[in-house]
Amino acid sequence: MIDRKWINLLLATAMFNLGFVIWFSFAPFTDEIAAEFGLSVAQLGLVSSAAVVAVPLGRIVIGPVTDKLGAPVTAGVTLVVVGIFSILSAFAPTYEIFTVSRIIASLAGITFVIGIQHVAQWFEEENLGLAEGIFAGVGNAGAGLGAYFTLPRIFGEGYAGPLFASNWRAAFFYTGVLAVVLGIVYYVVGDAARTEERRQAAKAGVTKAQWLYIATRHGAVVLSAAYIMTFGLEVAMNGWLGTYYREGFGEGDLVIAATFAATFSITAGLLRPLGGWISDVLARNERNILPWFEGRYREQWTFATMVFVVVALFGMTAAGLSGNIYLAVFAGFLVGVGCAFSEGAIFAQVPAMFPDNSGTVAGIVGGIGTVGGSVYPLLFAAPFLPNLHVGYAVVALTMIPLLVLTVWVFQPHIAERATEDGWIVDEQPAPTTATTSPSDD
């Protein structure tokens, strides 16, 4: 008989994958949408940013709600709502109506937090990095394999279907229908936790005072900052690269430009389990790879991957300025590798550091991290830049202060108290009920 943890991991992964297909399904069709609504390149950058505008707050809210109600409930409701508004966007007669419906449909991005919490409720601590990596990695691939690679081929230029003549309208409609169906399945089939003890520990609830305390711990703050510069960057590039390869290199073919963009998003998704697994291995074997954070094994790997991301971004600007699109695609691939490893490392740490509040912390880290997805596209397409290639170096420069914060928090004497010490709030509020650590089976 199949262990229920694998069934629930499959449900969470399918939810997240489809969620990312819907979230980023706008990007491959920017040419057609721009033509229909009369948008400029700068306006496309604003649209790409608006596509994630509802996600940060949504993730922050859905985290403690998932802890309290359980993943099957929040996943089911979220998928149905997202699906309905994706369907509505397919029939939008004006750009204003289209934009509003896509902003609500973009709540598909909060499925990440729901899944992180659900997986943490089913897997033991020593395998959390790998399990969360599989969930998030395969799920993230929805942006590449689904939105960038599959949708443009199913709904390519010249598409004519039974309901729509516009390819992008058909893509939004059918992915919305799939979301409604999966939402119903998730609610009926999913189980909230492996044991009743785990379920009660998560269900205990988080008050406003407790949430503020958790959100201001050193560990939550630094992981949120790290996620801004990794997942935030991934979200930004998923929504921007198709436009970049078309406008920066004059590549006008929809399928080819989308395929180039998919090399980043597929890499950023599929390699994420490896990033989490390496974090698990270093922690289990107590292996030091950096001398500055001795004994803090997960932190060492997380920091190393963050530095790689910054260096790779400078490399992407250099590759773009060379004028060679294939070199730029390879540089984008390396950025994707860095994002994958770093995101896997970060979400190996989140449930390991905060086992009783994995949904809440995942919502904080995931929500704040998504902010990068709104800000970075504005820098990529900033009108004051001499060309589209320089934006990557500008973004890399903004990440250096975040690296400095990470160096400070990851010092062993600070890192060992990163879940107790913090800013703003000094005293931990009393829990609403007694809790049992979800590491106890």
Give a quick set of tags describing it.
0% strand; single chain; 441 residues; mainly alpha; globular; 20 helices; Growth Hormone, Chain: A; disordered C terminus
* Alpha-beta content class: mainly alpha
Q: What's the architecture of the largest domain in CATH terms?
A: Up-down Bundle
Biggest β-sheet strands, sense, barrel: none
CATH topology of the largest domain: Growth Hormone, Chain: A
DSSP summary: helix tally: 20
Separation, N- and C-terminal Cα atoms: 19 Å
The radius of gyration computed from the alpha-carbon positions, rounded to a whole number of angstroms, is 21 Å
Helix content: over 70%
Our estimate of the beta-strand percent is under 5%
Question: Stretches where pLDDT falls below 50 for ≥5 residues?
Answer: 434-441
In the CATH scheme, the class of the largest domain would be: Mainly Alpha
Number of domains: 2
Q: Average pLDDT across residues?
A: 86
Shape: globular
Number of strands: 0
CATH superfamily of the largest domain: MFS general substrate transporter like domains
- What's the helix-strand series? HHHHHHHHHHHHHHHHHHHH
